[in-house]
Amino acid sequence: MPKASTLIFWASDHDAVDATGAEHKTEAIPRPALLLDEVPLTNRGPQQQANMATAMRNPKDSMKSTWRTDKSQWTVFHWFYEVLGVHPTSLDQDVPVHAKDDKVPFLSEWQTNRWVLVHALIPFAIHWAYVTYTGRNITPMAAFIFYSAAFKANAIHELHILRRLGHKLGFFDGDKHERDGVPDVSVAKVFRSLISTSTFRPMFTVFLSYRTALPPSSINWLWLPLEIGLYGIVLDFWFYWYHRLMHDVGSLWKYHRTHHLTKHPNPLLTLFADSEQEFFDIAGIPLMTYFSLKLIGLPMGFYEWWFCHQYVVFSELAGHSGVRVHTFTPSTLTWLLRLLNVELVIEDHDLHHRYGWKSSHNYGKQTRLWDRIFGTVRERVESTPENVDYNNKVTLPLW
């Protein structure tokens, strides 16, 4: 039987979507998890194709999430989300639903930059105060423990803020589908991805750049704004090509497809992926960025790198939140990115998940610079210039 290379997958229980992003209305179809690289050319409609794909799905790929309503089956991993209060939504609160042409409120780059800087400065200031008071710096091990804890605390607090914003503003594509939850079969897996990120990034940062002889007062304030801005752009270059190759190269797609099982992600699924992708997301791409900036002569000391990490993790979590607000990835160079029309907003990566499969678009996660240069930008649906209400300003609470 002749084959077609067109991919068919299901973005929700009611819509089949092909690789071009075109939607096909179907009846209630379970989301298949094993998706075929080739679909036979037949005269069958979407319902018959869905039944065929559903029969072949892998149970490990299920995105079904029902565990929050039955605590009797919970393990320590389930309680982790509950105790820390990091659920993306609250079951006892409503989420507003908006039509695509409802105006999108605006959150300024001043608000997001302020949030990141304040939360990055708190542990830095505590460290500075300790050195000033005692006259000695902390050891590398103490630095790892302290900054790893601060990394986790800031991320948890951001998750709380994003949940509050979601209940206030709603989510992109909310009129079609609610946000995916943490899958029943992946509760422990998602937990490990979150812990790994907030542990290993501070670990290799301390190992490569922390020097006991250099206290917080040694930070190069003059270079810091440029380092923060360039860090996001250079990181995005490496991420863009690593990410795009995993989509375009058949032998690499198997390492990335798990991450694309979610079509409407939430922040907890930021690093929901197989081990190979997790390694590059957590360490590989940040390390390539660090060495690139060192190579061109930037100081990139420990304290500067800490600030850069905080900018990146804020963007990673917010970019997977789907919160219906027009806001830019925070950066000291946002003004330049906006001038060039290559700034990234929350909807950009949301569209990458919603419509992307092996053939995709919007590969960047900090900017649209490389997508624009290499022709892979997808036009926005709700965050279009004429649909953003810049007079409806959203405040990003610090606490």
From TrEMBL:
One of its GO terms (cellular component) is membrane. GO terms for biological process: lipid biosynthetic process. The keyword Phosphoprotein does not apply. Pfam families: FA_hydroxylase (PF04116). It comes from the Eukaryota. InterPro entries: Fatty_acid_hydroxylase, Sterol_Desaturase_Related. Residues 230-376 form the Fatty acid hydroxylase domain. Keywords: Lipid metabolism, Membrane, Oxidoreductase, Transmembrane, Transmembrane helix. It is found in: Membrane. It comes from Aspergillus hiratsukae. This is Fatty acid hydroxylase domain-containing protein. GO terms for molecular function: iron ion binding; oxidoreductase activity.
